[in-house]
Amino acid sequence: MMSCDSPVVFLTAAEVSGDTHAANLIRALKAACPQAVCVGVGGPRMAAAGCELIEDCVGDAAMLFDPLRKIPYYRRLIGRVAEEVARRKPAVMVPVDSPGLNWHMAAAARRQGVPVMYYVAPQVWAWAPWRIRKVRRWIDHVACILPFEEAYFRRRGVAATFVGHPLFDHVAPRTDAYPRPPADGAWRIVLLPGSRAGEVSRHASALVAAAERIGRRFPKAEFTLCAGDERVAGWVREQVGRPLPLVVGRTTETMAASHLALATSGTVTLEAASLGLPMVVFYRASRLLNAVARGWLIRTRYYTLVNILANRPLVDEFIPWWGDPAPLADAAVRALENPDRLIETSAALAALADTLRPPDGRSASAVAAELVLKTMRP
Question: Label partner for 336 (CA 20 to 30 A): which of 69, 138, 246, 257?
């Protein structure tokens, strides 16, 4: 256990995922330094972990659907954080994910001489790479959750450390083999429409249509929709008029028992990789936004994290995707018609996921907590 004298740690998170990562980090901080006082803005998970919230910006922000209403809200929030930093005089500021808001939080801290340790590195390597100037200016150390990020930031003059992906603090490696491909075509296929209302509204009905197309080729195939909780399940039920099995809160177990996933791009694709589950990845986008962003804002060859990490098209990705179920279904049928390739892809995905696990068998939160304590000002 590290020696410390009641340091104040100021944490900021603006989304549900950041609230979760920050909460786990708070628990790791208190294990390493029980005297640490955690204060900040975030959500209910941070509060439950022992953080004194000056504002629940996760819940409040979720209520602000009008972008114009967000501007004054966030301006007020940034001002309040600056006041609290001046009053509390924290030993370190820890922004978590959400760079759009957290740039301002980091700047407010650094202007008052407070060091900043950023957890979940801003993906400047993927889009708007000129933002690296903000990283150099406002951030003392970056905790990276993807293995290549450490070298990327260090080459650009930013202190960085790979801590592991926090997803794998709770997702164990798969111990059983990839399910045997069925000789009778009774494939088990999981449909993952996303975790946000907008994602579900754009994806769910098209996934059902894709399942119907796949079912014409493999009549014995079984399809299961997954929702992380009842709120997401409600959105799915609103969008899906045709009956399909829907499981709630058992996504990991369902994926582990499946042969293939049709997955919305996001963290769930890494969980699928850890389970060795081959997948077809998609994300519905605006044609106009894609035309503007591609090659200017977005600089990666691939969009899907597993393909970015593998630096090759390990899985089929349809990003941007315009909503037509046919290409998703056709890609799935091609995959199912080649069982040997599915087994090879499963092994490659599991090996790739292993590179994301925290070093030395520790949790990403524990490694990040060490960095927080090392970044503190005396």
Answer: 246
CATH code assigned at 68: 3.40.50.2000
- Same structural domain for residues 137 and 204? no
**Does the pLDDT at position 119 exceed 80?**
yes
Q: pLDDT (tens digit, 9 = 90+) per residue, 243-274?
A: 789 999 999 999 999 999 999 998 899 999 99
| Tally of residues, the chain | 378
- pTM score of the predicted model: 0.87
pLDDT at 169 over 80: yes
Whether 100 is covered by a domain: the verdict is yes
**What pLDDT digit, counting tens, does each position of 264-314 carry?**
998 899 999 999 999 999 998 755 454 444 554 555 688 899 999 999 999
Same domain assignment for residues 15 and 163: yes
Tell me: do 215 and 264 sit in the same domain: yes
Domain boundaries, position 289: 188-354
